[in-house]
Amino acid sequence: MSQIARLSAEDRDDLVAYLDGELEGEANDRISKALASSPVARNEVEMLTRTWDLLDLLPAANPDRNFTERTLAAARSLDESVPLSERPAVHVARGAVLVAVWVVGLAAAGAVGYLAAAEWAPGPNDALVRDEPVLRDLPRLRDAQSEAFLKELSRSGVLVDLPPDLNPDAPASPTE
Fold this sequence. Notes:
By secondary structure, the protein is mostly helical. The protein has helices spanning about 10-20, 25-35, 40-55, 65-80, 90-120, 125-130, 130-135, 140-145, 145-155. The N and C termini lie far apart (about 140 Å).
């Protein structure tokens, strides 16, 4: 039993051109041989012919005068598509990225400034922190009752910014 030849997808694409007499060369010969040897191919041609006959029974459309102009204008607008770099969405995205970069930059600058100020700028409690060992021992130092001992501490740099009544090197106050 011989195998029934079917039309390939490429032959089906060329079938309308074959029926209209517009197909030439090797494609024309290939479809002619397939139609001659295959009842399935002939059936496809018959179905296509009936379809065209039924389409001829439909009333013809009468487009208005502007139809051609509108269709051609729409086709031209597709050809003249806006480049990606000039689309409004791209401009909005660029602006959003620019704003985000500025916000991040300002936040980073603020953080660096705050950390720098906290590290290098003198604060009101820096002297207390520096003199913390002396302040911890202040009750014992008051009870020391030795001026020589306090002078030695002052010279060594341990006692800095003492009140005048505890600092023996301080000038005498005008009330004395």
